[in-house]
């Protein structure tokens, strides 16, 4: 049965007190709303991380529009090609031949051969049973100097098995081969953003002990990227990168550590211990780093002075963990915007149910959010601080930390860095309307 959505409709189904919420799905699945907040990276942004690479999409015009606009908006249209499918290609054509020859023709028309080509077939190739493995074999025989990275643009697979984000991050590292291991080199895998050198305990510990940190976002050449095959230890801190990082570590026969972006002091200490043991180093600065994080939280609470704070899952990987940390240190967290609760957040979820059962969880993709009054009943002129662009949009606030994917932060240094950014955001308003619609936070934007 169809349900009419009107401007008088209650938004109760899009918000629930955490004390009444189910884990891991507080909200029912159904029709989804796409808020005009586009800082998250999509498959085009992530693919552009591979230096000296080119992307080729094989799909119909309606699907092509979004990815083509993304490439143009980030000033990378010269690294993007299209093979446009039409309806007659499905019923009187050969999708195999059109795909293979279209890709080959696009490569031949480039001014110079790329080092790698990211190929993006689509849902139609699933529906028609196209033999993509055979297509890749043919392309590799024709272009032996090019690495073909096997990607997909298949939104039909969003809800089952591995997500497209997980599969792409696995595929991006497939060209790496096991080289002679360098015991002083460490890979940090799976992230869109480079680590913050001052806001990450991982980066600080590695630098202090003279280890080289290698990440895809910092590679300037394809040779730099392939040199990641020399690293003796594989790390990952991003949930959507964990699967691919594990697969790479297994294939290269390297040790692997999953180090989630936790906001809990004890978890950070345990993960630092695991990292230091893997590196064979002593953690001589953990007490000082912990004290610095505590001091930063005390300063933040004093600066905010009770100002309400809203957090979103676009900004940080563990929004409930961050809510717990801030509440424990005197910060007035009033809402958390998320649609599902990650497995790593179970302990934070349980703690908040016990200690802050009235804390509202608010969906971002429920259709009711299309008509919710942004800012709610907050009086005009009363400040609210948002951590993340979606929270800023729904709360209609100019005071927000504009970041995604944990912002390159990790550990005690990450806590201190985020606390500093929150204080700065309270003091300096931003142009929310101009900032939050921009695609791909941190990427070039010609708009």
What descriptors fit this protein?
17 helices, Rossmann fold, 447 residues, 14% strand, alpha/beta, four-stranded parallel beta sheet
Can you describe this structure?
About 2% of the residues have low confidence. The chain is of the alpha/beta class and 447 residues long. The strands form three sheets. The chain has a six-stranded mixed β-sheet, sandwiched between helices. The chain has a four-stranded parallel β-sheet with strand order 3-2-4-5, with helices on both faces. It has three domains: 131 residues, Rossmann fold, CATH 3.40.50; 78 residues, Nitrogenase molybdenum iron protein domain (Rossmann fold, 3-Layer(aba) Sandwich), CATH 3.40.50.1980; 146 residues, no CATH class. β6, α8 and β7 form a beta-alpha-beta unit. Helices cover 37% and strands 14% of the residues. α4 packs parallel to α6 and α7 packs parallel to α10. The protein starts with 14 loop residues before the first strand and ends in a 12-residue tail after the last helix.
Give a brief description.
The protein has 447 residues and is an alpha/beta fold.
The biggest beta sheet reads: 6 strands, mixed
Based on Cα principal axes, name the global outline. globular
Distance between the termini: 42 Å
Strand line-up of the largest beta sheet: 1-12-11-10-13-14
Low-confidence sequence ranges: 4-11
Structural class: alpha/beta
Present the secondary structure layout.
Blueprint: E1 15-17, H1 43-47, E2 53-59, H2 61-73, E3 80-84, H3 88-91, H4 95-108, E4 116-120, H5 123-127, H6 132-142, E5 147-150, H7 164-172, E6 182-189, H8 201-208, E7 212-215, H9 222-226, E8 231-236, H10 242-252, E9 256-258, H11 265-279, H12 286-304, E10 309-312, H13 319-328, E11 333-337, H14 346-355, E12 360-362, E13 385-387, H15 389-395, E14 400-401, H16 411-427, H17 432-435
Helix pairs in contact: 4-6, 7-10, 12-16, 13-14
């Amino acid at each position: 049965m169809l349900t009419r959505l009107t401007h008088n409709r209650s938004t109760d189904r899009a918000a629930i007190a955490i004390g009444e919420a189910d884990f891991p799905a507080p909200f029912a699945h159904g029709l989804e709303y796409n808020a005009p907040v586009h800082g998250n990276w999509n498959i085009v942004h992530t693919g552009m991380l591979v230096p000296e690479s080119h992307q080729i999409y094989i799909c119909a015009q309606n699907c092509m529009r979004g990815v083509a606009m993304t490439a143009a908006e980030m000033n990378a249209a010269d690294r993007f090609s299209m093979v446009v499918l039409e309806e007659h290609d499905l019923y009187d054509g050969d999708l195999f031949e059109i795909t293979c020859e279209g890709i080959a023709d696009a490569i031949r028309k480039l001014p110079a051969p790329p080092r790698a080509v990211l190929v993006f077939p689509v849902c139609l190739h699933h529906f028609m049973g196209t033999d993509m493995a055979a297509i890749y074999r043919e392309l590799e025989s024709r272009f032996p100097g090019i690495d073909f990275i096997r990607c997909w643009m298949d939104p039909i697979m969003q809800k089952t098995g591995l997500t497209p984000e997980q599969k792409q991050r696995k595929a991006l590292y497939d060209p790496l081969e096991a080289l002679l291991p360098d015991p002083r080199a460490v890979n940090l895998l799976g992230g869109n953003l480079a680590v913050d050198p001052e806001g990450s305990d991982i980066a600080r510990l590695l630098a202090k002990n003279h280890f080289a940190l290698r990440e895809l976002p910092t590679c300037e050449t394809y040779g730099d990227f392939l040199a990641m095959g020399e690293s003796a230890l594989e790390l990952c801190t991003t949930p959507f990168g964990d699967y691919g990082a594990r697969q790479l570590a297994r294939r290269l026969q390297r040790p692997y550590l999953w180090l989630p972006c936790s906001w809990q002091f004890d978890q950070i200490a345990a993960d630092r211990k695991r990292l230091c043991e893997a590196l064979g180093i002593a953690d001589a600065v953990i007490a000082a780093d912990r004290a610095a994080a505590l001091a930063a939280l005390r300063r933040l609470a004093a600066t905010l002075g009770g100002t309400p704070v809203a957090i979103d899952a676009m900004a940080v990987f563990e929004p409930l963990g961050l809510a717990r940390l801030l509440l424990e240190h005197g910060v007035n967290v009033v809402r958390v915007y998320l649609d599902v609760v990650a497995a790593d957040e179970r302990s934070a979820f349980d703690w908040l149910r016990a200690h802050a059962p009235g804390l509202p969880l608010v969906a971002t993709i429920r259709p009711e959010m299309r008509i919710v009054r942004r800012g709610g009943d907050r009086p005009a002129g009363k400040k609210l601080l948002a951590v993340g662009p979606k929270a800023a949009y729904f709360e209609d606030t100019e005071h927000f930390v504009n970041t995604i994917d944990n912002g390159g932060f990790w550990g005690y240094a990450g806590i201190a860095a985020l606390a500093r950014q929150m204080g700065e955001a309270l003091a300096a308003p931003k142009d929310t309307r101009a900032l939050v619609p921009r695609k791909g936070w941190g990427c070039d934007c010609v708009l």
